[in-house]
Specification:
Elements: H1 11-17, H2 29-50, H3 55-66, H4 68-77, H5 88-92, H6 99-117, H7 119-129, H8 131-139, H9 143-153, E1 159-167, E2 174-181, E3 184-191, H10 194-208, H11 212-215
Antiparallel strand pairs: 1-2, 2-3
Amino acid sequence: MSVLSYHFKDESLLHTALTHPSAGVHNYQRLEFLGDAVLQLAISQALFARRGEAEGKLTFRRQRLVNEQALAKVARGIDLGSHLVLSKAFLAEGGAGLDSVLADAMEALIAAVYLDGGFDAAMDLVQRLWAGGIRQAEAGLDAKGALQAHFQALGEGEIEYREQSVEGPPHRRLYNMGVYHDGQLLATGSGSTKRAAQRKAAQAALDTLPREEDRT
């Protein structure tokens, strides 16, 4: 695939990465497992190097770049679906255009490059294909999303916002909101609207979360 700007020394890795499970035993499932980890590391390193942000914000950005929809978008950008090997029946059903299939194949392709050329080659591929996505993720950062992503990454579920108090006359309200996780108050924030107060509370909570190095 010339669009990758990478020449495989072992072309069997590329063939395996492009083969859907419906087409044979030697398919991309094992490579997909490895590619997920390589992509996570590559994106994490790219984000870490760009600016000195807190862990919660970095987690949020990474989540936006490695989910199924993001992977499928990158795959469509290089027309990956047209190169996939699928069973005739699954191909006829439109399998090559499914987000889940494209995302899995994209992860497998990253793993194939990693095995063939090492992490530097995989990192170069990710940086080229995800460059636009990284810029968009930076523009779309939100404290509430970052806080939610932090707990989702830990497998600890949803957060909740509760109104603490409302002050001032009707034309100049000041809302005080609290953000809770597992019934515990994390932080509070105030603003002229409930949404603004929630964002302030979320940011305050992010600022008090322990850093990764503090938990190890």
